[in-house]
Amino acid sequence: MNRKSFFKHLSFLTASAGIFARAAEAAKAKVGIAPKKKFTYDKKIFKLGKYTIRVKIPEYFKPKMKDLSFVFRRDNMQFEDPTNLQPKIDGDFFVFDVEFTAEDKYYINVHDKSKKKRAYLPIESISMYALAEDLYETRVMKGDSHIHTTNSDGKFSPDEVALRCYEVGLDYQAISDHRRWDTSDIIMKKFGKYNTSMTFYHAEECHFAKDDIQNFGGSQGLTKYVNANKAEFEKLVAEKMASLPKDMEKPVKLEVATVEAEAHLIRQFGGIPVFNHPYWITSRGFYNKSVDAIWERKSVDAIETVTFGRRHGNRPYSTSLLIEKNAEMRERGIKIPLIGTTDAHHISNQGNAYTIVFTKSNKWEDTKQAVLARRMVAVCDSTYNELELEKRETMMYGERRFIKYANFLIKEYFPAHDKLIAEEGKVLAEIIQKGETEERLAKLKVLSEKAKAYWDSVKA
Which residues pair with 84 in a beta bridge? Predict the structure, then answer.
């Protein structure tokens, strides 16, 4: 394409984008879509029981008060009648008395009786979630445990990758460079000295087996340890091979034994052995036989489900194979936790996949126990239309109870949560890049305390 044709083509694309944007606005005007006048309320997460809820009345609705009606319902009430509510008015607030009787998402749907044709459709929905005590007592952490930097084959420095985790609103991060545990350790020490809302865990991607196994949370690096203790590792692999079925093919047997030897040491280091991208397509093809054997023997403690940042291979196809395999294993009573990560080699992929963990605290042992107990959801959350970037497609993998709760959090909690953490990250970036000053440190403290307090502020 010559220079003249290039600019002509560029002009066409620019004009097309503008046409699409104007067409979208015209379509909204034609069907009468107006910006929503949201009710505001602080408490969104409740323990089962009776509560009084205060909801601020938008100015837009004050002239229409006599036309409003309120219906209280929950998600899983297919054959139950909702409850009509009669709120009290306390200054600028509606005051509702409600009771949460089962763990579920609840709504107070607001209807406008003056709308003759479609009065049955709510003009606004005030949503909240009620939890049984065990889940109510946990805290929510969203994070990515598989990210690469220039210390292996990533495109951005460890500092840039760590700061990007703030920008996309994560609660925890674990940089997992190939054969490099020390990257996560360096970042933990460098960034962890600042009292922000971010939690740092150790990780590395290990390659003694052909199947990639991750040392997630281990107190030391597996690669460094094995390289320093090769005879011990080879003996361990031999012991694992001797314990495998005699009719197992020799190449598969060696692979499984190596994975189990890696997993054994990772557990000794206090970490979680994770099977990274088990159906990843490479020039070596699928790892079907070894995947089946590793999964069936529970050789690892978690399996990576979503890897959005893969530079090679077919992510949707490989994820589909993995979900099918997981269903098969569950039918056979084999339940292994599923972790969502990006495997990002470029910062543009960070934030497109993550894991939501329901843990007692951000301490590693509590997060580890939550993962092993499968109290988590693997999430793929990516934009699907470049002209409408606010629209996202979100897929979740895990147990139904946690998927329902995570879906609520993604819509009602994380948008504000992510912005608070991103604000922390901006100030922290200034400190890392330009140095510490009293003003910057004071500003970071204020923003960090605000981000940390947000979780408690939405709970009743």
Answer: 71
Q: pLDDT for 53-104, tens place per residue?
A: 999 998 888 888 889 999 999 998 888 889 999 999 999 999 999 999 999 9
**Span 200-213, mean pLDDT?**
96
Among 301, 401, 390, 456, CA closest to 75: 401
Residue with structure tokens 């009710």? Answer: 39
Please tell me the distance from the alpha carbon of residue 442 to that of residue 410, in angstroms, as a whole number.
30
Does the pLDDT of residue 405 top 90, yes or no?
yes
* Number of neighbours of residue 131 by Cβ within 10 angstroms: 20
Q: What CA–CA distance (Å, rounded) separates 180 from 409? A: 34
Query: Dihedrals φ, ψ of 113, to 5°?
Result: -70, -15
Q: Kindly state the tokens that stand for 262.
A: 């890696």
Paired with 344 in beta bridges are: 147
How many other CB atoms are there within 10 angstroms of residue 232's CB atom?
Answer: 13
Q: Is 424 helix (H, G, I), strand (E, B) or coil?
A: helix
User: Cβ contacts of residue 312 below 8 Å, gap of 6+?
Assistant: 280, 281, 282
Q: Rounded to an integer, what is the distance from CA 25 to the centroid of its chain? A: 32
Cα 330 from Cα 340, distance rounded (Å): 18
Question: What pLDDT score was predicted for residue 284?
Answer: 53
pTM value is: 0.89
Q: What is the pLDDT of residues 290-320, one digit of tens each?
A: 899 999 999 999 999 877 655 454 577 788 8
Give the span between the Cα atoms of 412 and 404, in whole angstroms: 12
Task: For the chain, give the number of residues.
Answer: 460
For 243-295, give the DSSP string: HS-TTS-HHHHHHHHHHHHHHHHHHHTT-EEEE-STT---TT---HHHHHHHH
Q: Tell me the pairing of strands 124-131 and 302-307.
A: unpaired
Backbone φ, ψ for residue 28 (5° rounding): -65, -45
What band does 390 get if pLDDT is binned at 50, 70 and 90?
Answer: low
Going 38 to 40 to 42 to 48, the CA torsion angle's sign is negative
